[in-house]
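FORM 7B: Structural annotation worksheet

SECTION A. Query
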Amino acid sequence: MLKYISRRIAQMAFTFLLLLSLSYLLLEAMPGDFGQQFLEDPKLTGEERAALVRIYGLDKPPHERFLRYMGALLSGNLGVSFQYYPRPVVDVIFERAPRTLVLFLTSTITAYYVGFLAGKLLAWRRGRALEYVATIGGVTLYTVFTPWFGLMMIWLFAYSFKWMPLGQFITPVFWRRAPTDANTVFGWMLLSAFLAGLALLMIALLSRRLMGRTKTLTRWGGAAATIGVLLAVWGSSELGPYARDILWHITLPVLTVTLISFAGIMLLTRNSMLETLREDYIMAARAKGLPEAVIRDKHAARNAMLPVVTALVFALAGAIGGGVITETVFSYPGMGLTLLQAVQVQDIPMTMGGIVFIGLLSLLAHLAADILYVYLDPRIRYA
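SECTION B. Predicted structure
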């Protein structure tokens, strides 16, 4: 297994280098001089303009700029963004990437968990009226035009009912008297969520040896206690109202992405589960007299999970690509919207920084999928 992982990491490094090379060359091939729109700013003096040309290497041929960029990239320097000058690209990514990851990780994990459970139950109870209604609803959501659906969600919940804000990440007027900035509050929220997740994971692991009702009470009681402590801490903090404002703004985008993702994974799980139920080992398990819940959850559902895990990996890897649409519709300042704006103004350092982030996320997601396959299906072995 370790030998396979080492070989995969070497392949990932080569793929990553090839991705960066092709992306940089395509950006360089764009018509026009991407530096002129910044250098022709009338506010710049001749000395400042010459300094910028020298700093960005705009006086060098493309191949020299490429080698210079790759050398800086290997040292962890992604350059300075044209659009957010003089902020480094790394600082912009560290600010925007967590917002996108929270948006899509929350919606994707929720959608895949609920969608897998729903698809499993629909396949197990095939032929009932609920299956037809859920299938039609799932197909409708799966094929819906995402920008239109996002706009309809805004019109319904934000404009008509006024339950949600119209967009953005925070309410600017409300944050005028905030004791700190939104990024700091968001960082504390991420830390709290991480600690709560660790607590829930420990409770799940410790309760594995328990049986029956004791196991259920331990898990649900531990989850309720963890959530209660989390709410109590934030409720007594002066940052609590500002954290609620961030959650209020992020709820509608999360709900929109969750509904669209849920539909696809429910249909995929249902089809995979139906194929699995036709296998001979399911008939053998029934012949042994195993309980129906054991056959459904430990024999059929576990093997039906493999294509679902594959779809989950591709969904996580494509989070930034999907974020371009979703974040634009909701004016959500994440990596997707940042990448779109960088391409529009030909901010090559920022665009390449976004591609670096997307490439690393995609490659790591595929590596995680390969490892999960071994855990989910004991028949899979890597040399």
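SECTION C. Observations
The chain has a mean pLDDT of 80. The two ends are 6 Å apart (CA to CA).

SECTION D. Sign-off
Analyst initials: ____
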